[in-house]
Each structure stands twice: as C-alpha cells, then as structure tokens.
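REVIEWER CHECKLIST
Item 1: Sequence provided? yes
Item 2: Single chain? yes
Item 3: Sequence as submitted:
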Amino acid sequence: MTGATRKTLHKTKIALLLIFLCMGLWGCPYDSLTPLGPVDEALIDPALPGIWLCSSEEDKNSWQFHFYAFDEKQYYVTAIAEGEAPVHFRAYTTIIKGKPFLNAQELEFAKPVAKRTFWFLRYFAGSDGSLVFKHLRDKDFGTDVQAVRSYIEKNIDSPDLYEDYCICKKSITKDKGKSIAEP
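Item 4: Structure as written out by the authors:
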C-alpha cells in the first residue's frame, strides 16, 4: 500500500467518525496514540446516547451515528453512511476547562490495540437542540499528549483550534437528560 493510498484510507475512516464524510474537504484531524484523559475519569453525557442524523454544509451527504452507553464511562458508536460498511468506535468524554471532548478510537481489530489512534472532537449543543462537532486541527505536537492538552487549555476558545465537522439532529432518544455540552 502506498503512502498516498494509506493517507486516503485513513481519511475515509476518520470521515465516518462523527461527521466524517466531510473530512476530505478539510484535511485530517489530529490523531494520537494517547487519549486526552484517562477513561476512569470519563463520564457519560446523558444527551449523547441515541441515533443522530448528521450532515455538513460542505458535504451534502448524510449519515447516522448510533451512540450507546457501553458502560458507566464509555460509548460504543456505530457510524453508518449509505453504501458503506458500518464503522465501529469506542469513545469517551474528557472535560478540559469545563468543555467536553470526545476521545474516539476506531475498533480496528486487525490492528494491535497499542497502534489504534484516538481522534479528539469538541462538541456542544446548538440553540436548536442539535449537536455540533468540531475536530482538533492537525498540528505538529509530536507524540506528547500533554503538549496537546496544554495547547487546548491555552486556546480552548480560539476558533483556530478547531475545524467544523458537522451538525447532528437526534432521531431517537435512548436516555433523557441535560447535556454537559449545553452552553
């Protein structure tokens, strides 16, 4: 497999994780072998479980994300796009300066666990009840996740930190509750 083919495949997989059909237009988000925070400090946002219908302004395709509370700390997420095989993820929320970020990791069983990367997604509730996802822009942080976290903390409100993914509307509610992502 060539480097260009590998990069294209990587973008395709990312595109199926929370808004990911639009990824080809914006480039790759930052990915890391280390999450932003430990799973034992994670919490379930009661607004996330359910089926979300997602789209972006840049890409007229739509897709679904099925969020399930896997346990008390993590979600099992299935991304479904028309004509594509479903892609499966585990995800959990890390709070940085009061704002939720998803640590999302594709369940690539052909890869050793130590080689499966995380993508970081900031999310927040829209005024119309939608859920807005943005990914962390790719920046040369090297392999130091503490440098990433420190950079996020210093620039958390800067629009230059993120790129738009998509906006999702809830189709089916699994759990009710106020989101930790509400403004």
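Item 5: Key structural point noted by reviewer: Residues 3-15 form the longest helix (13 residues).
Item 6: Recommendation: ____
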